Fold this sequence. Notes:
Number of helices: 11
Oligomer: single chain
CATH architecture: 3-Layer(aba) Sandwich
Structural class: alpha/beta
Strand order of the largest sheet: 1-2-4-3-5-6-7-8
Low-confidence stretches: 1-20
Number of strands: 8
CATH topology: Rossmann fold
Amino acid sequence: xxxxxxxxxxxxxxxxxxxxxxxxxxxxxxxxxxxxxxxxxxxxxxxxxxxxxxxxxxxxxxxxxxxxxxxxxxxxxxxxxxxxxxxxxxxxxxxxxxxxxxxxxxxxxxxxxxxxxxxxxxxxxxxxxxxxxxxxxxxxxxxxxxxxxxxxxxxxxxxxxxxxxxxxxxxxxxxxxxxxxxxxxxxxxxxxxxxxxxxxxxxxxxxxxxxxxxxxxxxxxxxxxxxxxxxxxxxxxxxxxxxxxxxxxxxxxxxxxxxxxxxxxxxxxxxxxxxxxxxxxxxxxxxxxxxxxxxxxxxxxxxxxxxxxxxxxxxxxxxxxxxxxxxxxxxxxxxxxxxxxxxxxxxxxxxxxxxxxx
Length: 358
């Protein structure tokens, strides 16, 4: 349960379906790209950085051999590229004739640094793993594309939650790389206030568990992970969906029991600490004017993590040269923070962006 909630930070707690069998026409492939002597921003290095990825569809090339139909989709904290194969996303966008139909697009779904099957603390280094941040994660994604997949330009970067924040970093760090950016469910500013507080409480709930042992535990620190799961569940909550899916006290109590019973089995404590703390240096707000690609930025009004009442989006959006900010009103169709992965809610706006930047 923890991995599911952290991976989507979190979609609606109830009712998530797993991905259906993938159509063979999608030409799904998985692979790993290894970067030798990867240098992190703070000076640390890793002799081998493994970057796992999945691709759907086939690359198309122009007369000079450049791939012209690549789209990269970036997941949220604790997630993997696999999450985008769920019906509420893939069933809408990747369907035949859909906006990102793999018959026409080369879809790249990376597992970001520290996540999934990419290099992460639980591989063996534990808390000695380099203290990566979002700049390092984006640099690793760039290396995967350019050196691993031989992609030197993208039609679109679509990012959800942490991936939303990565999209803003991409726009500033590699301004000519993507023709369009679609950051969903984030704010392009430093994570402070409640957004940092729930992350810090989650991290410290693990670190203060005596069985964490400075990260050198023999078994997962159960108490710390259960406390972390409580915070993650609330942070990813969708009030309207939960009111519908948990209509009685017994239903809510039963979900609480399932969450706490399964939490220690679902993730690695050190991985979670790193994943949440990687946002510590994030703040693209001083350089928003350097983003030259068209930006479709969408948040939802029922997002606990990015509450609209702060007014941050309205203050920052005008600084994007070619940006459009949309706040989706809370409704029976939204899913809190996880609205970012329910494509039916925002597909028409994405269609306009793609038409304008084709």
